[in-house]
Amino acid sequence: MATQIPSLPETERLAPACIRILGGNPGKFTLQGTNTYLLGTGPSRILIDTGEGRPSWLATLRRVLSEERASLACALVTHRHHDHTGGIADLLRAWPGTAVHKHRPEPGAGLLDIADGQRFSADGVTLTAVHTPGHTEDHMVFFWEEENALFTGDNVLGHGTSVFEDLGLYVASLERMRGLFSPPEKAGSKEPVAYPGHGAVVSDGPGKIDEYIRHRAQREMQVLQALRGDDGDGDGDGDRDRGKVRDEDGKGNGHSDGWTVMELVRSIYRDVPESLHPAAAGGVVQILQKLQREGKVEAVGSGERWRLAWGSGRSAL
Fold first, then answer.
1. What is the assigned CATH class of domain 11-203?
2. Is Metal-binding found in the keyword set (predicted)?
3. Rama region for 73: left / alpha / beta (φ>0; ψ in -120 to 50; rest)
4. Distance of alpha carbon 89 from alpha carbon 77, whole angstroms
5. Partners of 99 in beta bridges
6. CA torsion angle 39 45 49 55 (round to 10)
7. Residue 45: C-alpha distances to residues 74, 117, 269 (Å)
8. pLDDT digits (tens, 9 = 90+) for 101-157
9. Whose CB among 86, 133, 140, 251 lies 3.0–4.6 Å from 53's, allowing a Cys bridge?
C-alpha cells in the first residue's frame, strides 16, 4: 500500500530474455499497473500474466512481439485475480490455440493446470513453478534458473506490502520463496532478483522477502500490543494515553469490552491514509484469526470484538 511510487515505462527490457509490459491499469492497489513479462530470446516466447484486459496492453504486446519477430508459446498465470487474468480472452482471440496455464483452473475455463515443480522453457529461459498460497490459494511463483530470478506474483510487490487471504500460509510461502534463490557465488555471480506482479524490479529478492516476513511479525506484535493496552511507544501507558481502563484481571486489553477490527486498524495504521484502512482491516482480521488459533486472543460477544485470551496475559507477547 505504497503512497508514493516512481513511474515506469510502458515497456522495458529488464534482461536480455525479459521484457516487462505494463497492463495499462494503474491504480491505488495495482500501483503502476499489472506487470506482465515476455520471456525468451528466440522465435517462441513465454508470457507471465495477462493484465486485466486493457486494449492498450494487447496492442503493446502485439507491437513487442512484432519487433522481436516472435510468437507466444504459452502464457502462465500467477493467480486468479482479475488484474492478472482479465487479458486471457483477448490473448486467445489474438493468438488462437495459445496454451494458457494456471494452478487449479476453474472447470470449463479452457486453461491448463500448473503443478508444483512443473517446468517451462524457451530459448534462454527455464522456469520452475512453485505453489505459494497466501495472497490467494492458487498463487504460483516462477523461478528463472538462468538468471537466479523469481517472478513473485502478488506475494511480493515492488513497492509497499501485499494483502493475503491466509496469514499462516502466506508467511510459510514467503519462507519457501526465500529459499529458492541461490547465493551469487553459486549462480554465476547472478544477483538474486525479484520480478513482482506490481511495481519496480527488486534487486535483492531474499532481502525484500526477509523484510516482508519481519513486517508481518511486527504487525502481529502491534495487534497484541494494542489488545494489551500498550500503544507501542515503550512507556507502557497505552491505556492512560487513550483514557482507557484495564480489565479487572489486569491483562490490559485497552478497551474493557475488547476492540473492534477498525479500532485496531486506526490504532496500528495511524501513519496510513484512511482510504487504505479497509484494505488493512483484512490483514488485521487474518492476524487475529492466526492468534486465535494459537490461543493468544479470543473473540467476545457476537464476535465483533477481540481481546487477549484468558490466562494469556503479558506472556502472549
1. alpha beta
2. yes
3. alpha
4. 13
5. 74
6. 110
7. 7, 20, 43
8. 999 999 988 999 999 999 999 999 999 999 999 999 999 999 999 999 999 999 999
9. 86
